[in-house]
Amino acid sequence: MTWCLKRVCGWARDENLSVLFTLYKMLYISYIALGYPISEEEVTMFYIERAIKDNYAVITGGENGRKIIYKASGNHSERYDDPEEQVRAEVWAELIYSYSYPANRVKVEVTIPDRLPSDRADIVVFADDECKRPYAVVECKKDGVTDAEFNQAIEQGVGNATWVKLRAEYVLVVAGNTRRVLDVSDRYGALERENNILADLPKAYGRPQEFRFHKGDKNNDIQAVSRGALITTISKCHNTLWGGGRLSPPTAFGELCKVIFVKISDEQKARKRGEPYQFQIKTHEPSPALAKRINDLYDEQKQRDPEVFSESIKVDARVLRTVVSHLQGVNLSKTDLDVKGVAFELFMDSFFKGDFGQYFTPRPIIEFAIAIIKPEQESYVLDSSCGSGGFLLYAMDYIRKQAAEYYAPDSADYYKYWHDFASKRLFGIEINDEIARVAKMNMIVHDDGHTNVINFDALDSVDAMHAHNAGFAKGKFDFILTNPPFGSKITATERPYLGNYTLGNSYDKKGKAKVRGSQSSEVLFIERIYEFLKPATGKAAIVLPDGILTNSSMQYVRDFILEKFQLLAVVSLPQAAFAHFGAGVKASVIFVRKRGANETPYDDEPIFMAAPEEIGYDATGRKTNNQLPQVVKQYEAFCANPERFFV
To answer: Measured between alpha carbons, how far is residue 548 from residues 440, 479, 528, 529, 555 in Å?
Structure first.
């Protein structure tokens, strides 16, 4: 990592900052900030642990060589390091403890009677102690299988349970937290796959329940989940909606946002202990009826908050049923915020690439900018081109962590401290309607802060923006954190407002203004940020292409920056910073303070400069060391005593 300090008057005359970034080398530190490892066993294996304690099963062997012996099932043994076997073991134990089937009647690897007896069922629950009358057939798959693989497992289970084979009454197919239960008794035709769907397998040979999940139920309440489980669940939902091209990726993501919105709303709805949740599959409810019920829930919430979503859910009924089956057992509201943050971050990381890379700023860069800016609870914070909402989300999280330093996390004061900031002082602007909804949903998933995120052209009239939402005004914001879009041209013919910008005009020697034919969007954003900031105290962190800082043709832009702002720091990012997201432009983050009305630059203003070589990930998205936290420490030391940094 290279770093240096430069007096402002020298920077103004310099045509190429890259020379400055090679002056000094600093030691780098190791800090993993992206690409979190996911354990196969993050979810607590509660039921199998009970089975082992009760001597129904035993696990032997060391790491990468473990075996599970199902003692209650004839001492049958399997390799326990297989993820699919771990799913089966947990379901097997769950059938004993949660569904109250006698352990001696729950068998694994049961041979299917056929002319060639080589096929086996993963688990069979029998109705008698002699294990001659199959009651339910269970097929298990590892979490994360495709919809096609899951449907294949359904057909395999139904085939094994039919009259010519095991003659069971029920089929349960499990892939992680995704389940499907079918009544395959002679009450239904052999090809029925719709009207015979059940909410759950009957408990203790009883009647099927109408719903599986009930508030406060010890065994069947919805549960908070681990990071790995949530990432898998979200990915399954998106893949189901996307369907290999059924919907475009952004449309699929938008529909997922709507469904998650319904899910969280249902979780937070007041209900008595024992009442069923509505966001779940209901026994003998066809897909169209389920879809209507979910859409009714959505419309109910949409009326309360029409700014979040204006369109209905546009998903095929059977596809929606599959998405519900992925999500129904997960309690998003109670899942730890850090878990949700990482899960959605990694998912969106993979989604916002190529054409959509402009809407996503990587986590390490966001965290770095916030660590330098240090927003405050009573300050107004804005992202003038918020994309998927990363800067807003982490600003909210920064204040939430600050609240925990003052108040107990479960207290009303704690909630009020951060929620007042999120609902009244956090603002975002996004020109793309679809992405604006993504940003709002991202904030809702993380416990709100979406109220003042608007779909608007941030470069258009502030008065028009103010009319749309009175919270937006010139000279209002204490902090702006933003990564404006690079490279797009604003033309005078398409955007009449271009001439209203100082940087939208060229000037002759007499100072007479002439509207430019076009101007880069990032240049205009610099001026709009200046307008939004509070005079004298307002600060901003802005991601800019290095061309603005280095090209001789951009000298007038640098002059504008130095006249209107005190330049606090310039941090050059490596080439890989945005390559993973489809943008190869070399960029830097500049930190500025808006000057007061009568404030002018002086020749001795110092600027902190750094050029970290590693920022937590490389051009392929793989994790690397992260030197940005070290830059923060150096910047803080510089602010405390800038003179000692000059050599």
So the answer is: 31, 22, 16, 16, 8
Give CA–CA dist 387/217, Å, rounded. 40
For the domain 376-477+479-532, what is the CATH code? 3.40.50.150
**Pairing status of strand 505-507 against strand 513-515:** antiparallel
φ, ψ of residue 174 in degrees (nearest 5): -125, 130
Q: Which of helix, strand or coil describes residue 514?
A: strand
Nearest to 72 by CA among 88, 56, 59, 86: 56
CATH of 46-198, one of 3.40.50, 3.90.580, 3.90.1570, 1.10.10: 3.90.1570
With b for 16 or more beta-carbon neighbours within 10 A and e for fewer, the 540-558 pattern comes to: bbbbbbbbbbbeeebeebb
Spatial distance between the Cα atoms of 157 and 176, rounded to a whole number of angstroms? 16
In order, the DSSP letters of 405-433 are: HHS-TTSHHHHHHHHHHHHHTEEEEES-H
Place of tokens 């319904």: 262
Phi-psi label, residue 62: left if phi above 0, alpha if psi -120 to 50, beta otherwise: beta
Reduced 3-state DSSP string for 220-272: CCCECCCHHHHHHHHHHHHHHHHCCCCCCHHHHHHHHHHHHHHHHHHHHCCCC
Q: Measured between alpha carbons, how far is residue 301 from residues 259, 264, 281, 294, 310 in Å?
A: 12, 10, 20, 11, 11
Residue type, 513: A
Report which DSSP code applies to 533.
B
Would you list the domain boundaries of the chain? Answer: 1-34+543-647, 46-198, 227-327, 376-477+479-532
DSSP-based three-state secondary structure for 190: coil
Q: What is the pTM of this model?
A: 0.73
Return the closest-CA partner of residue 43 out of 111, 115, 143.
143
- Measured CA to CA, the distance from residue 494 to residue 504 in angstroms comes to 13
One-letter amino acid at 323 equals V
CA–CA separation, 112 and 135 (whole Å): 14
Q: Give every residue of the chain whose pLDDT is below 70, as ranges.
A: 1-45, 115-117, 244-245, 248-250, 307, 342, 345-359, 449, 580-584, 644-647
Q: What count of other Cβ atoms lies within 10 Å of the Cβ of residue 132? A: 8
In angstroms, rounded to a whole number, what is the distance separating the alpha carbons of residues 366 and 347?
17
Residues with Cβ within 8 Å of 241's Cβ and at least 6 positions away in sequence, in order, are 247, 252, 255, 256, 315, 319, 323
Residue 263 to residues 210, 267, 331, 591, Cα–Cα distance (Å): 19, 6, 9, 39
pLDDT in tens, 352-394: 655 555 667 888 999 999 999 999 999 999 999 998 888 999 9
